[in-house]
What we know:
The chain is of the alpha/beta class.
Amino acid sequence: MISKxxxxxxYSRSSYEGFSKHLIKDLSTYGIKLWVDxxxxxxxxxxxxxxxxVLIETKESxxxxxxxxxxxxxxxxCQIEFQYFxxxxxxxxxxxxxxxxxxxxxxxxxxxxLDRVTIHSINDDxxxxxxxxxxxxxIEKNKKKYNLTKIxxxxxxxxxxxxxxxxxxxxxxxxxxxxxxxxxxxxKTNKIVIPNFINVLINITEIKLQFYFNEMFTLTDLDxxxxxxxxLIDCHTQNHECTLLSLK
Length: 248
């Protein structure tokens, strides 16, 4: 069974308005698919039965993002979800919201040894750091999957490489300059090839362009990138192999 989502998003309702809602929106803009109860539980069904089905499906996903607030371990649904993740060795990414590891209940103290991020506000630097870490896992997972198709010399591969390089330099997610540099390189060398449609590539590329092009791209970059973006969408829509040789 192939999971319909990338991450299960586990949280208590007390963290929703001030934090979880914003993180869900920000992660979704990168093309990351989250299962969130408030969005994905169909109306009029047995919630517990549906949750069990989704938890089983989580085994095939990348893992679970846990928003651990002071009420998390006191909520029945959160306890059910968390225990399932632990019992089934599902990778978890704990985010401590407005609490520290000292506040973790004794029976869950093993969380202290896990890779985690502590965030007090969406304005904290640690908020962007958490998004970057989740993106790293997401991209690496998809890189492994798409390597099976022997993708070489594509924007997707270059974006991955840029992303990994920037992480080692302790900078943020792929910069507009990286995107422009790579797209221009492939444009000039006539090597922009998209084997079939690649959802991850399109999602990342499109979002990065939306965030950055107004401020940071030169006019020449914009002309090229707009054309690349349009062709990528066309490839995605038509569902066939596509070579962007017409860009020359």
